[in-house]
Design brief:
The complex is a heterodimer of chains A (355) and B (816). Chain A has 355 residues and is α+β, with helices and mostly antiparallel strands. Chain A has helices at residues 7-23, 27-38, 43-50, 56-95, 115-129, 143-146, 179-187, 227-242, 302-306, 327-335, 342-345, 348-351, and strands at 133-134, 140-142, 171-173, 192-201, 212-222, 248-255, 258-267, 291-300, 319-326. Chain A is 40% helix and 18% strand. In chain A, strands 1-4-5-9-8-7-6 form a seven-stranded mixed sheet, with helices on both faces. In chain A, strands 2-3 form a two-stranded antiparallel ribbon. In chain B, helix 6 packs antiparallel against helix 9 (370-388), helix 13 packs across helix 16 and helix 13 (498-512) crosses helix 18. Classes of the chains: A alpha+beta (355), B alpha+beta (816).
């Protein structure tokens, strides 16, 4: 049986092992060292195995010393293993390096809402905030709802204002969203607060007219709605849409289905209301007036209410206002779209700029 | 309406500049769209001159060399007018003068003679149309005097857009009345009040007899004039007509135009000698009757139209345009002046039907008041006497079978406040109404002060009710003085409806998946529908389309989407993904006979079937990049997009194979949704012939009914136990015949899996040697879970056996 090594020898094994472990360059080399120093055939393992053969008084000191060496080597192996692993990862990551300046994958770039839709939603949301519900109605409309019920009886000169598409003498494409005033009041007794977005049509096609366009109608009928309230509601709308600093003014006008009738102007945001640009030239947007017309409105004509009197629209008891605006006009003013026809060309280079 | 300022100011002059006046009118309801300057530039270079001598030009037969005193000694002016002569007082433009066309006059040498100035003809300063010779002015004018003091050579014109309710403002005096009301400046007396003195002891009845049809003519007045001397009108009159946009013709015709432009009432002058049989009758046209109007066009008439005839035939289209038969000419000496009141609606309809509008019809169609005809006769008579040297034959033929009663409207002070939200003082209300020509009598109402307001004839068509009077008060009082308030709203909260929310979410889902929204025309063409193999679909056809391209209403969104796809492809955009959200239209019932005799319809009637659709076309599923080729869109790509929409809305749906003429027969499906299996729309690849008709290659598309979709979206989502116990996941490979759809396999598996089977997902489809020809293997991933326990292997094995049994009837077996 071999003689038990002295603590000196154990210390040598420890030092040699530690130095070899520190010098290991790879996981495989490290494994080799583990076998060499801690494996079954290792000297240290032999020492530990032979402890039982030592005289009892030596077993304690030798066992303790050998175990200490084993623990130390195991710790060094583990530590070195982690170091090597980290270095390995570092190296493989370095090899994985990409040119981060190349474009990212255009997996599914988001699309766009049409500017008319986006603007329509914006208008709807403002009026919802002001307490108006959104209703919609047919575009193929009856003469009665488009004209007669809106105080344009047959032969009324105001019918000349709108060039109308007809399917028959009685059926037409609505020329405004206003038919929904009567249709809605037929369905709902006062109070009523609604806006009506939708497509409208006039038989007209040039730089400033398209045969199809979009409007938002508004109607508020209650016991004590005044022209001053109309001014207030429309001013709120204009400020939400075009900026809190906007000023608005009402100007008398004529529509057959409102009395009094007005148009709403807002102060021009292009020139700040001065009518002049910075270089003192005339502002083309407001044509030098400092004001921009944005919609028509008025107090609902008693004749219009007369068609739905049975639903509680008694002219002596309730009154209200109506207004109508062009969505294209609002969008055109807000976003500086130069030509109405761009809205319907559906060129992606246009569509992608909005929504 | 062109309103020459000098003319306007002769009736009411508020001392404002043209721009200030325009602004004031704009803010009170008369829209002035433009202020135009007419005539010469700076009037300072235009003076009175005396022709001292006029000699023949040494080198030109037609030119004269004149010595002219223009206030600063003699100057030489070469003149080409035949009528220039020594001793005349003339109008002279000095070098540097700016002519109406903007040209500056310089000194010039004409055939060797230096000319410093120009002797003017009336057309050269924009006050008439005559270029036959120079103007010869009254001798008392001193040389060098500013020409503008004696001739209207420079003016400003307000271009006003008059709304159809204000025919009175289609006359200068009507505008003057507005100016008076809104500025407070004094208004000159109504020029129609004073009449001319008739002469002679005959009577108009001896010269002509007239009868009318009261259904088309409310009033017909006529006066006769004899000894008429046809000639040019005086310069002041010509200038007013010119500035108002009317070409001077001859004094008699000019008088009719002048009176119309001043009062708004059109007149017509007949050559009385050309009125055959001395008889005029107003009647409805015969069916198929033909008339050549003054514009030289022969027109076919029908019995809805009113005509004026003499003993031998039709001479004019009443209220719209005269005919050639009895036109006033240079040889006319006897004139019959007509001022009538027509039924506005009838004029409007006739004018629309014939496509013929005139200055007269534009006024008559707005319903003039019969009082205006008589007023216009008075003013015209004065001018006929003064300007045309005529004798007014005593008497007026006045056929006015049903005189209109005076209109009196009650106005309550409390009502003004209630409608406007502003307390306008009583005396201010009265002042405004009186200034506009209303007569106001105090009265009272239960809730305070009221007035009985008499409406003048010229406002009768517009002011008939209390609200109309309140509008008059409001606009003149000034809308800018109204307070700004918000309604004291008593209703409930406002929100989008479910259908509107669903639509927005669907649109957003498509947008977020990379599709861009388009807005295409609601119109399409029969040819486009034919190209889309939709030729058999019933459509609504317009009676008066702008073009054949836009002549029918689209029954589907697809053609518009394809148009947009082609537009963008042609501009070099390869991969497209577009959608639209809009109405489509189908006929649904009769297009006539809906209205009853009073023009009403059954409440809520709709004339056509309109649905809101959402449609999409895609040519590319995923765009390419530097490391990946673009992925073209096919059936599954577009179905995936549709799934994204429907699943995000939690609609239960499935597709079933279905053919549509415009879809690829093997790659087309109906979308079926909801518990009762409603047809929501279609999804598929377009038929190659359709794609090719739009110059496109493979196009995948879908279109669904958004109105129906909204009905199918669950109103409220209920919580479902997620289950605390683990799921058992099993993969199955099911081999079936090629023609067994995956949905059928899925249904069999679901039936066999029972309640414990929580999820089925198809994750692979294999065809090849291992399953044999004509068969395919679907790889399914199944998730079993029980709500109350962990499943045992035995339980799952039992389910698997049940699945196997369920698959047997469709010829399916498990593989591996």
């Amino acid at each position: 049986m071999p003689d038990a090594p002295g603590t000196d020898r154990l210390e040598e094994i420890r030092r040699a092992g530690e130095s070899a472990i520190a010098g290991a360059r790879s996981a495989a080399e490290l494994e080799e060292l583990r076998v060499r120093y801690l494996g079954r055939k290792a000297e240290l393992t032999g020492v530990l195995r032979s402890i039982k053969d030592l005289p009892p008084e030596r077993r304690g000191p030798v066992g303790q010393a050998a175990n200490a060496v084993r623990t130390a080597l195991e710790q060094r192996l583990e530590q070195r293993g982690r170091e090597l692993e980290a270095a390995e990862l570092e190296r493989s990551l370095a090899e994985d390096r990409v040119d981060v300046t190349l474009p990212g994958d255009p997996a599914r770039p988001p699309g766009h809402l049409h500017l008319i839709s986006a603007t329509r939603r914006e208008i709807e949301d403002i009026f919802i905030g002001l307490g108006f519900s959104v209703v919609e109605g047919p575009e193929v409309e009856l003469d009665f709802y488009n004209f007669t019920a809106l105080n344009h009886p047959p032969g009324h000169p105001a019918r000349m204002l709108q060039d109308t598409f007809y399917f028959s003498p009685e059926v037409l494409l609505r020329t405004h969203t206003s038919p929904m005033q009567t249709r809605s009041m037929e369905q709902q007794s006062p109070p009523i607060y609604i806006v009506v977005p939708g497509k409208t049509y006039r038989r007209d096609s040039d730089a400033t007219h398209t045969p199809m366009f979009h409007q938002v109608e508004g109607l508020a009928i209650d016991e004590d709605i005044t022209l001053a309230d109309l001014q207030g509601v429309l001013l709120e709308f204009a400020r939400e849409m075009f900026g809190r600093e906007r000023r608005a003014r009402l100007r008398p006008h004529y529509f057959p289905f409102t009395e009094p009738s007005v148009e709403l102007d807002i102060d021009c945001f292009n020139c700040g209301g001065s009518g002049r640009l910075q270089d003192a030239s005339r502002d083309p947007l407001c044509k030098g007036s400092g004001w921009i017309e944005i919609l028509g409105a008025g107090m609902v004509d008693p004749n219009v209410l007369g068609f739905v009197e049975d639903m509680g629209y008694d002219n002596e008891r309730v009154q209200g206002f109506a207004f109508g605006m062009g969505i294209e006009r609002i969008a055109f003013l807000k976003h500086g779209v130069p030509d109405l026809r761009l809205f319907f060309e559906n060129d992606l280079r246009f569509l992608e700029q909005f929504g | 309406m062109r309103v020459p300022l000098s003319w306007l100011r002769s009736y009411c002059d508020p001392g404002l500049s043209a721009e200030e006046l325009a602004e004031r009118l704009n803010m009170t309801g008369t829209e002035v769209v433009r202020v135009e300057r007419v005539g010469v530039g700076d009037p300072a270079r235009f003076v009175v001159g005396k022709v001292l001598s006029a000699e023949r030009h040494p080198n030109a037969d037609r030119l004269r060399v004149c010595e002219v005193d223009a206030g600063d000694g003699p100057r030489t002016i070469v003149c080409g007018a035949p009528n220039v002569a020594a001793g005349q007082t003339v109008a002279v433009a000095l070098p540097g003068a700016v002519m109406p066309d903007g040209q500056a006059l310089g000194e010039a040498t004409l055939r060797g003679v230096r000319s410093s100035g120009m002797i003017l003809a009336e057309d050269e300063v924009g006050i008439g149309g005559d270029h036959a010779g120079i103007m010869v002015l009254p001798d008392e004018l001193p040389p060098g005097a500013p020409l503008a003091e004696h001739l209207p050579i420079a003016d400003e014109v307000l271009e006003a857009e008059i709304t159809p309710n204000r025919p009175d403002c289609l006359g200068v005096y009507g505008i003057a009345r507005e100016v008076h009301a809104v500025t407070g400046a004094e208004l000159a007396p109504d020029p129609t009040l004073e009449d001319a003195q008739p002469a002679g002891d005959d009577d108009v009845q001896q010269h002509v007899s007239i009868e009318i049809d009261p259904e088309v003519c409310l009033r017909f007045t006529a006066r006769a004039f004899e000894g008429v001397r046809i000639g040019p009108s005086p310069l002041w009159l010509k200038q007013r007509l010119m500035a108002a946009g009317q070409r001077p013709i001859s004094n008699v015709v000019d008088v009719t135009n002048y009176v119309m432009l001043l009062t708004g009432q059109p007149l017509h002058a007949f050559d009385l000698d050309a009125v055959r049989g001395g008889r005029i009758s107003v009647r409805r046209a015969e069916p198929g009757e033909r008339l050549t109007t003054l514009d030289g066009v022969e027109r076919e008439l029908d019995p809805s139209m009113a005509v004026i005839c003499d003993a031998e035939g039709t001479t004019s289209l009443a209220g719209i345009m005269g005919g050639q038969v009895s036109e006033v000419s240079d040889g006319t000496t006897r004139v019959l002046m007509e001022a009538a009141t027509w039924v506005g609606r009838n004029i409007l309809e006739t004018s629309k039907r014939l496509g013929l509008r005139s200055e007269a019809s534009a006024r008559f169609e707005k319903q003039l008041h019969p009082d205006q005809a008589a007023a216009a006769q008075r003013l015209a008579a004065r001018l006929m006497v003064e300007i045309c040297g005529a004798r007014l034959v005593p008497g007026t033929i006045d056929l006015y079978p049903s005189p209109l009663p005076e209109r009196v409207v009650r106005l309550r002070h409390a009502r003004v406040r209630k409608l406007l939200g502003e307390d306008i003082p009583e005396q201010e209300i009265v002042r405004i109404l009186v200034s506009l020509g209303f007569e106001v009598q105090p009265s009272s109402a239960a809730d305070g002060v009221a007035w009985e307001v008499t409406v003048p004839g010229f406002r009768d068509s517009d002011v008939q009710r209390e609200a109309d009077l309140i509008e008059e008060v409001a606009r003149v009082y000034g809308l800018e003085k109204l307070p700004t308030t918000l309604p004291a709203r008593k209703g409930g909260a406002a929100a989008l409806t479910r259908a509107q929310r669903v639509r927005r979410r669907a649109e957003d889902a498509l947008r977020d998946r990379g599709l861009s929204e388009i807005v295409a025309w609601s119109f399409t063409s029969p040819a486009a529908l034919e190209r889309a193999r939709l030729g058999d679909v019933p459509v609504l056809r317009l009676e008066n389309p702008l073009s054949e391209e836009q002549s029918v209403m689209r029954p589907l969104l697809l053609p518009g989407l394809l148009d947009s796809a082609r537009h963008n492809t042609a501009r070099g955009r390869p991969g497209l993904a577009l959608f639209e959200s809009a109405h489509v239209y189908r006929p649904s019932g009769p297009l006539t006979g809906v209205h009853d005799e009073s023009g009403r319809v059954p409440r809520g009637a709709v004339p056509a079937s309109e649905r809101h659709h959402i449609g999409a076309v895609m040519t590319e599923a995923v765009p390419g990049s530097w490391r990946r080729a673009p992925e073209p869109a096919d059936f599954f790509a577009v179905k995936g997009v549709l799934a994204g929409v429907l699943d995000s809305l939690r609609v239960e749906w499935r597709v079933e194979p279905a053919e549509r003429p415009f879809l690829h027969p093997g790659r087309a499906a109906s979308v079926v949704a909801g518990a009762d299996e409603r047809k929501l729309g279609w999804v598929g690849e377009l038929h190659p012939l359709v794609a090719r008709a739009w110059d496109l290659e493979r196009v995948a598309a879908f279109e669904i009914d958004a109105d129906l979709l909204a009905e199918l979206v669950p109103e409220r989502l209920r919580h479902r136990e997620t289950g605390a116990f683990p799921a058992v996941v099993q993969d199955l490979a099911v081999v079936v015949a090629e023609d067994v759809p995956a949905d059928q396999v899925r249904a069999a598996v679901a039936a066999g899996g029972g309640e414990l089977l929580e999820r089925i997902e198809v994750f692979d489809v294999y065809r090849g040697e291992q399953v044999g020809p004509g068969r395919k293997s679907l790889a399914l991933r199944l998730e079993f879970r029980a709500p109350d326990r962990t499943l045992t292997d035995a339980e799952v094995a039992e389910r698997r056996a049940a699945i196997e049994r369920e698959l047997a009837p469709i010829g399916g077996r498990l593989r591996g």
